[in-house]
Amino acid sequence: MTATAPTAAPAAPDDRAAELGAELDRLRAEIVAARGADDARYIRTVIAVQRGLETGGRLALAVSLFPPAWCAGTAMLTTAKILENMELGHNVLHGQWDWMGDAAIHSTTWDWDFLTPADAWKHTHNHLHHAYTNVVGRDRDLGYTILRMSPEQPWHPVHLLQPLYAALLAPVFEWGIALYDLEADAVTAGRKSVRTLLRDIAGLARKAARQTAKDYVLFPLLAGPSALPCLLGNLAANSLRNIWAHTVIFCGHFPGDVQTFTEEQLQGESRGQWYLRQIQGSANIEGGFLFHVLTGNLSHQIEHHLFPDLPSNRYAELAPRVRQLCTRYGLPYVTGPLWRQYTSMWGRILRHALPSRLLPAHRDDPDKGFAAVVDDPLAAATASGTLH
User: Fold this and answer.
1) Can you give the pTM of this predicted structure?
2) How many CB atoms sit inside 10 A of residue 199's CB?
3) 3-state class (DSSP) for residue 335
4) Which of 13-17, 160-164, 220-224, 287-291 has the lowest mean pLDDT?
5) Which region, left, alpha or beta, applies to residue 213 given φ > 0 means left and ψ of -120 to 50 means alpha?
6) Is pLDDT at 7 greater than 50 in this prediction?
7) Can you list the alpha helix ranges (DSSP code H) found in 35-135?
8) DSSP letter at 125?
9) CB of 283 closer than 8 Å to CB of 335
10) What pLDDT is recorded for position 367?
11) What are the start-end ranges of the H helices in the chain?
12) DSSP three-state, residue 336
């Protein structure tokens, strides 16, 4: 284990953080007031397209002894699963569409095409990850308890293998998340009872049985002579969906310019400082409309972390305004094309596979946070004249 000094606090002076928070609150209130028929039409259109693609994919795979049918069916089913997982399941379970009052598109009734039971995911993701984004020791999503993604996380020899198991995780990402959401580590830490763990394992087993039976038993049997290619098409669709989700999520959370924080920095954290941490602990991915839809608009990860319960189709509208705010306040706004964020993310995984003592010390190491370069970003922006 290598001890490292805690990162410098990124908190801004209370008054400037309050100003930032007030401006972001006004942006949020503006979108809440503007939600309406266009937003409802958007999400219902996505649902219709997703269901159409799934139906078409299932039908094509039912006659997938013919290679063109297999290719078309697998492509349609993969796209349908990506849409259901990213733009629908993730965002519906965040409560982004609860305001519509439609029981069919509500966070309390939606059950997604994913191994993790919805309630388990909402606990670990909505309540833990979004509250404690990138806080070492509080945000379990920071490396998902198996990857070392910050110099503040203790190093163990097993981390030498993390580039390998990070790559192996991608095609089975939903299984990794399902096991992660059981929070078995919380039992050894005394935060969760064995009885609760066993209850959660039973819930996961039921959900996994339904999912695997649907994709690997029911639909292949219905395909008759095309049973084997149908099964392989379903396997390919699930694997490609997992790789895509892994890519988008890792590129939104772990590029080298994204900061991590210590638990001490949470003490007395105001709403404005919480907003500041969300901005500095997230990264966007640049692309066009279709790309953003296929990422579940998590390519706007900064805006999602700032406003997780706002409709996802509004993030593209918010992004330039949030970026303008960051420029005014002298704050980093980490964004770039997919290839750059992907490369940077893997650089971080490789770097932290090694003990910190083997790495050269750089004062501007992005993993140590923007505060390692500028102890007080808002005050520095004021002094330099970039904040008006």
Assistant:
1) 0.89
2) 11
3) strand
4) 13-17
5) alpha
6) no
7) 37-61, 67-82, 91-93, 118-121
8) I
9) yes
10) 46
11) 14-34, 37-61, 67-82, 91-93, 118-121, 162-169, 173-180, 184-188, 194-213, 219-222, 227-253, 271-280, 289-294, 301-306, 315-329, 338-351, 377-384
12) strand
Question: CB atoms < 10 A from the CB of 127, how many?
Answer: 10
Residue 207 and residue 213: Cα distance in Å, rounded? 10
Is residue 245 within 8 Å of 86, Cβ to Cβ?
yes
Tokens representing residue 271 in the block: 């709403």
Smallest CA-to-CA distance from 325 within 27, 10, 29, 34 is with: 27
Return the CA Rg of the chain.
Answer: 22
For 38, 100, 296, 318, 362, the CA distances from 44, given in Å and listed in that order, are: 10, 11, 14, 21, 49
- For 292-296, the CB contacts below 8 A with 24+ separation are 292/316, 293/46, 293/83, 293/87, 294/79, 294/82, 294/83, 294/86, 294/87, 294/244, 295/86, 295/248, 296/85, 296/86, 296/87, 296/88, 296/90, 296/91, 296/248
Using alpha carbons only, what angle is made at residue 57 by residues 52 and 61, rounded to the nearest 5 degrees?
155
Q: Which residue has the tokens 């379970």?
A: 93
Residues in the chain, how many? Answer: 388
Tens digit of each residue's pLDDT (9 = 90 or more) over 158-171: 999 999 999 999 99
- Residues 81-125: pLDDT tens digits? 999 999 999 999 999 999 999 999 999 999 999 999 999 999 999
Contact (CB, 8 A) for 259 and 282: no
- Angstrom distance (rounded) from CA 151 to CA 356: 6
> pLDDT by residue (tens digit) across 234-256?
999 999 999 999 999 999 999 99
Phi, psi of 56 (to 5 degrees): -60, -40
Find, among 48, 136, 28, 35, the residue nearest to 88 by Cα: 48
Q: The tokens of 136 are what?
A: 């070492």
Distance between CA atoms of residues 151 and 180, nearest Å? 22
* Spatial CA neighbour of 197 closest among 179, 176, 177: 179
Which residue is associated with the tokens 């509080």? 138
> Is the CB of residue 345 less than 8 Å from the CB of residue 254?
yes
Q: Please tell me the distance from the alpha carbon of residue 356 to that of residue 115, in angstroms, as a whole number.
A: 36
Cα–Cα distance, 285 to 299 (Å, whole number)? 5
